[in-house]
Amino acid sequence: MQSKKNIKDLELDELEKYLEEHGLPRFRAGQIFEWIYKDTASFGDMLNLPKTLIELLDKDFYIGRAIIEAMLHSVTDNTRKYLLCFEDKNAVECVLMDYSYGKTICISTQIGCRMSCKFCASTEGGLVRSMTCGEMLEEVMAVSRDAEERVGNIVLMGTGEPFDNYDQVMKFIRIINHSKGLNIGQRHITISTSGIVPRIYDFADENLQCKLAVSLHAADDVTRSRIMPVNRKYGIEKLLEACRYYIKSTNRRVTFEYALIKDVNDSIRNAHKLGTLLKGMLCHVNLIPLNKVEGKAFNKAPEEKVRSFKLALKGYGIDTTIRRELGSEIDAACGQLRQKYVRQ
Ligand code: SAH
To answer: Could you read off the pLDDT of 111-122 as tens digits, one per residue?
Structure first.
């Protein structure tokens, strides 16, 4: 017997195709879709479907849900960090943050990660597997179910490299964005990549209105290769060339993330190098105070260095912000809660 599939892994047209193959009208797909993304727990609760269709759906599909294994709530800034468990007992993290412009959820795209960035907690144990689009959708749904909040913004900045799971991530975006899906505007979705250059070109060609963030973290190849092994394959020049292509073809700016690491990339010289590199580009730099990860040799840059780094970039006309630290007392930096779960 063929095993059941998670219905959240299907796009509307795939559901229509399934119904057609079973000699059923296509319009039922829209009805099913709406029920799923209104977070209906079972096919039997889909009140406008005929009994025969409910039976057919029950035979072929299940509505994938995650179990909340742990939840940490930071009362100081109302950040909630979740550890979600899927059918195969793999766990992922996501974080719900309170911003002035609305609730933002940071989701994981893979279980583990194979990018091996030296300062990051998500890389321990490497990549277990990529997540399916249905599992990523369930991250958003499980958190909003638990917190009883509508999520308005989504950032793909949790564990994993979204562009190492490209097809499922694109599918996820299409369903999130669909009017019968979660109906969240593309402009409210940010994808962060460590710099998988060919996928940046693909992403530019998708012609989406999502935001792109690129984890740069260094302005020279020696430093970047040292902390981000992906740089040995796709160096800074190739990476920025891809970013320029993205900017030109989408007319959208790129955000460069730069985690300031003590004595690694936080000097004024580093800031001038970065300024020279990015000058004139349609971009924004987001300086991230490094979140210290247990067992890693990297430390957070001192506050005054962060401020002077920002000031130096300003001299190059580069729009720069310093990321507000949320949920630091609950280990909200990606990978740290899962790291503890895996170790246990
Ligand atoms: N793989 C993607 C998305 C996940 S990480 C990427 O690399 O962009 C999201 C952001 O958090 C990245 O910019 C990443 O470099 C950064 N990050 C990872 N560990 C960090 C830490 N300990 N402190 C600060 N930022 C960190």
So the answer is: 999 999 999 988
